[in-house]
Amino acid sequence: MNVNLVAKSVVTAIAASVMGGAMAADVVQKNDQWFKDGQATLQQKLNTPRINGMAKNVILFVGDGNGVTSNTAIRIYKGQKEGGTGEEYVLSYEQFPNLALAKTYNTNAQTPDSAGTASAFLTGVKTKAGVLSISENVDRGDCQAALKNEVTTILELAEQAGKSSGVITTARITHATPAAAYAHSADRNYEDDSALSDDQKAAGCKDIASQAITSNVDVLFGGGRRHFIPKTMKDGEGKSGKRTDGRDLTKEWVGQYKNASYIWNQAGFDALNTEKTGPVLGLFNSSHMEYEADRAKDKGGEPSLAEMTGKAIDILDNNKKGYFLLVESGRIDHAHHEGNAARALEDGSAFADAVQAAMDKTYQEDTLIVVTADHSHTLTMQGYAKRGNPILGLSVGVDGKGHPSDKPNLADDGKPYTTLSYINGPGAVKGERENLANVDVTDLDYIQQALLPMSSESHAGEDVAIYARGPKAWLMEGAVEQNYIFHVMGYAAGLVK
Amino acid sequence: MRVLLAFLCLSLGSVAIAAEPLHFRDLYGRGGDYSVIAKEKQGQKIRVRGYMAPPLKAQAAFFVLTKRPMSYCPFCESEADWPTDIMLVKTDEMVDVVPYNQPIYVTGQLEIGTQVDPDTGFLSKVRLVHAEFETAQ
Ligand SMILES: [Zn+2]
């Protein structure tokens, strides 16, 4: 019965599309621009063929903490920065033809962390919060057990297939999301050897930074220098290292591979010869790289996420067999944790620019690009602001006739409020809510008001979007488990059979 | 806090209004160096919005002002990083501590140059002296 019903509806749909033109009634709104745009989108989608070849290259973009609300706010922010009203703006990856929703929970957590989620989309299996690319039956921190329960990552599979690989982030390169691609660890905090006990070291457990330099990755760009150099050593910007084993991993890196280079500032980055260089380790800050909004003030100078993405592709595509590249905008998440929407939106805009850089440098016929977030945040976009109202501003609505007002909307306490706020975080204060009438809420350092007082705003547990373009991108559809992302990438590139 | 505020309104009200509002971050240039603005405003009264970092000691006539609340994420960080762009605020009275996430406005005389506090050993590069603060209402 069910089968028949489905069959019947398919037949009806085919009949409708075949006879579409002749059967269609003329509608009075047909000359309305919205109508015409809708029709144009429909035609474009009808004419979009499924790309079914093999993905020679796979690029996975992760906007850390860039949930659906965050993404909408970034869209409006970027659109307004470029002179529009904002709502209608299309972010680079929003042009992708295929979309799915990912369920982000970890095996032991309803609301996940970045370690468990990155492990899921990079290895194809979900695991516990806080652990990197090991199976779920290991307790967090049990590094001996972890040694026997490592699971293979898509980056390792790409390397085994003779492809090149790269990992880029604006956070520390040893931070959860990037580390899950090349390292296996019972705890995301084992970023250098000082975090491991003597017993753990004796048992053969390895810190994340030391795994980075032995993992066969060809391009590593990010922050986190302190985890690669000894405590007794100062880096190019005058900051001390954290390693207690005396190893200088930047030096080991250069000595270990043919034509390998280590760079730490904009000048070194600009001087890279993408056609001739061997493996590159670029560590542009002691800890995380700067927020995009603060990047110009960095001492040694730092490349943008888009610049890093472009250069990495130029290096990786020298390999005729292709590459796997992970690009993380790591600090959308950090700004949200600070309750500081302005920096999150600025980093989000830079994320969209990085995806655009990859779109410009690749062909959709041979390169699968997947864009997603690992988890969401408690950011909410609320109130009845008028069209084009500054996304970081006070909520200003429309009057009774629907015309734009110039007076802020007031809550029942008689005070104005911002469109963006958080459910929890540092923006929550005891007692009376601050009157925002005379506060520059669009300021870069402004902390949005919040309900629950927490020193760090938290992750949120709702689904995140997955956008895809390229070979087998059409497999990204429906509401899927987050670990499914790995399976599409692996299938598209012929890495998993 | 209320005492301080009343004091501010009564005796320093006019100074507070006269003090030029500045963005905290504008005092720092590239790599934590002093900005042109910081050099220009040296010795002058300025007013900034910021947050009081949790105090180094309970009873003091100073506190550290941060441009954003000193929060850190237990999931992201194994330890909190002290930001480079902070300001030492020296008050004439004992500080009535407010929560680290309460926005405050601080008015004081801008002082720049590296200084190590003889009592606490605290190193500062930018200070507001003879400062008063009020919570944002
Ligand atoms: Zn986070």
Automatic annotation (TrEMBL), chain A:
Protein's name in the database: Alkaline phosphatase
PANTHER family (alphabetical): ALKALINE PHOSPHATASE
Record's bilayer topology term: Lipid-anchor; GPI-anchor
Cellular location(s): Cell membrane
DNA-binding recorded as keyword: no
Source organism, top-level taxon: Bacteria
Record's cofactor remark: Binds 2 Zn(2+) ions. Binds 1 Mg(2+) ion.
Taxonomic source organism: Marinomonas profundimaris
Keyword Isomerase in record: no
From TrEMBL, chain B:
Annotated keywords: Signal
Signal peptide (UniProt feature, chain positions): 1-18
Recorded superkingdom: Bacteria
Name the UniProt record assigns to this protein: DUF3299 domain-containing protein
